[in-house]
Amino acid sequence: MPRPIKFKLVIKILENQGFFFISQTGSHAKFRKLGDPTLNVLVPIHEKEIRHGTFKSILRQSQLKENDFIKK
Fold it and tell me: Terminus-to-terminus CA distance in the chain, angstroms?
């Protein structure tokens, strides 16, 4: 079973990969890739860890690999 990941770490890694905060609606923050206005990522803002399925969705949206998160 994969190790859970905190939302703060996901946000930090997204920002290191060139994403920046756009807006927040309720408990979800929207990030956009610098230089690519079509690449948007929604991240749930919760105190709990992000579930594996949600993490995979963030990876798909951001077009990043799981290794980008493991290295950090």
Answer: 19
The strand pairing partners of 32, in sequence order, are 20, 40
How many CA within 13 A on the CB side of residue 41? Answer: 29
**What pLDDT digit, counting tens, does each position of 46-59 carry?**
878 888 888 899 99
Phi/psi for 50 (5° steps) reads -85, 130
What's the domain range around 56? 5-70
Question: Taking the model in full, what pTM does it have?
Answer: 0.83
Q: What is the CATH number of the domain that holds 11?
A: 3.30.920.30
32: its two tokens = 């956009």
